[in-house]
Amino acid sequence: MMKRAVGFWVFALALLCIVGTALSADGTVMRFLKISTIPRVAGMGDATVSVPDATYAETNPAHLLNVDGSLLTFSHTAWFEDIAIETLTLGTASGKHGFGLSMIGLHTDPLQGYDDFDVPQGTFRFYDILVSGSYAQEVYPSLKVGATAKMVYEKIDWDSATGLAFDLGLGYTLPDPVLGGNISLGFVARDMGPKMGYFDESFNLPESFNLPTALQGGLSFSRAGLPGDLDAVLALDYERTRDEDGGVLFGAELGYRQMAAFRVGYRGNYENSDLTFGVGLGIHPVVVDYAYASMADDLGNTHRVSIGFFTGAIFPSPDDAR
Questions:
Q1: φ/ψ (deg, to 5) at 210
Q2: Which CATH architecture has domain 2-321?
Q3: CA 115 vs CA 112, 122, 200, 260: distances in Å
Q4: 297-321, pLDDT tens digit by residue?
Q5: What pTM, to 2 d.p., does this model score?
Q6: Degrees (nearest 5) of the Cα angle 94, 288, 44?
């Protein structure tokens, strides 16, 4: 089992390095796809690609198999310049199969427009919409794979663009005989797809741009049953995106009886670094999460809050239906 895990991780790291170097630095569109909207994920600095119970398809679709029944989550993100992001996600697992649905909307208050000579030209609004479906399956003991298909739409004043994007994720978990916890490995390729362009008010398509494709690999350690009924998670990831330098992500979580959790994270690349913090409260079947991110690139601080509800499995297992 250890040899299989090492082989998987070496393969994932090699793929991350090879494909990462091939990502061009050209301009990208649909940059809202890079924003983490789930408070638990954001509170841990987005370093959750390998954390098995980070059961959100936006992190790694393979994690859907770890949902305890079904989880319905609504989250709200408050950004700079009155930008807000609303997210509704549903994840459910049954047997060796997991399913997910997600809807994300980004919107703003009216913004002042200017021409090339800085003369005011009235106000405009822009918004983004994402609708996605995900599927995960266990292919070997402890090895899971998942995929997500996305339909994305963006409108800025008169200009609009529509396109498709895809994610592919892997996850592997094995027990740690030394420390008594679990070691997990994860890899995900996000927002792969064809170039997209903006149609103007005359329905012309002057130029096409790349999606903000991202590659992320990580390693995490989790241990339950620590003194004082505490649980701990430590995670370390590396992320490379098409239009940014690669960087290290770090996240830590300390939980108490699955009722409360405290989180801290760090996002770093060669130019910027962000610190994140988060808390979670849960009384089954309800869980509430909050995250705060201090942005290093002068875009202001962000706040995320979500409420989730656990229910039983929605779909019967395909294995049981045979």
A1: -80, 155
A2: Beta Barrel (2.40)
A3: 10, 10, 16, 51
A4: 555 578 999 999 988 766 555 555 4
A5: 0.84
A6: 85
